[in-house]
C-alpha cells in the first residue's frame, strides 16, 4: 500500500499544480510570483545544496537499520531533535546565510510575535542571524514534543517509527528562523501536556495541573495565530476518548487566562480575527492552499488519512484537520499557509505509522514516502526563495 499512497499523492499533486497554473493564467492577481507558495522562483543550486541530501540519507539509513526501534527513549528524543534541526538547517543554507536570518519586526495582527521579538531584542540578541539561529533551535523542539505526544497517544513503536516522518518533513523549508515555528512548539507542548494529563496513570491534582498547563499553552498560542484554538479540539476528543471529560474544564479555564490578560491590556482577540482578512481571491487560494498542504506534509499525508481509523491518535488529526478546514471555509487561507499551517502539519501525518488494520500488527516505517517527501522539499528549496 505504500507505493499506492505515493501514486495517489503524485496524482493529487499533479492535479493541484495544473489548477495552480490555471489560477495564475486566468485568475485575478494572486499576490505572489511563486504560486502556490509566497516568494519567488529562482535557481538556488550550489555547493550548500549537497547538505540536505546527505542529512536525509543519514536519517533514512539509521531508520532502515531499526536503530530507533531499540534505542533508549531519551536518546530517541535527543536524536530526533538533532535530526530535525539538521534537516531544517540544511534546507535553509541552500539560500546562503540569509536563509537563517530572523525577522527584524513582525507587523501581524496577533500581539504574540511582536512581543517575542521585543523580548529577544531586550535580551541583547539583535543581530538578524543570531535571532534566526535562536528561532531555528527553538523550532526544532517540535520534533521531540510531537514524538512524546504520539508515544502517549499511539504507542511506543509507532512513535519511534514516526521519527523520520517528522524529522525529514517537507515543511521544514519554512521552519528556519520562523516565528510560526514557535507557535508550532507551543501547540506541540500543549498537546503533549494534555496527553500526559489524560493518561490513565495520572489522577487527581497531577491530572488537573497537566490539563491547566495545556490550557495555558493553548491560550498563549492563540496570541500568535487565530487558527490555533481549533487545535484544542484535539484535546477535547482525546479527553472524551479516554473518559477524562472533566479535564476539559481545567484546560478551558487555563486557556482563558492569557486571553483575559490580553483583553485587559487592550487586545481584543475577536476583533483581531475579523481584521485578519487579506485582499486576495479567496476561492482560488482556498483550493491552492490544499495543494500547499499536500506538498508541505508530503506523501505520508495520504497514508495517514487512509489509516486514520486505525490509530488511537486520531484526535490529533481531528484537531489539525478542523483548524485547516476552518481557515479555508472562513476565507482566511489566502496565501502563505505554508507558514500559517506549520502548527498543524505534524499532526496530520501521525497515522502514517499506524497498523494496516485496527489493532493489527506493527508495520514498518513508511521510509519510501519519507524519502519522496524529502526529495520534494529538496527540489522546492532548489527553485524557491520563500517570502521573508
Automatic annotation (TrEMBL):
Q: Which UniProt keywords apply?
A: Membrane, Transmembrane, Transmembrane helix
The organism's place on the tree of life at top rank: Bacteria
Keyword hit for Membrane: yes
Q: Which residues cross the membrane?
A: 50-68, 75-94, 129-150, 171-196, 216-240, 247-270, 282-302, 314-333, 368-387
State the name under which the record lists this protein.
Glycosyltransferase RgtA/B/C/D-like domain-containing protein
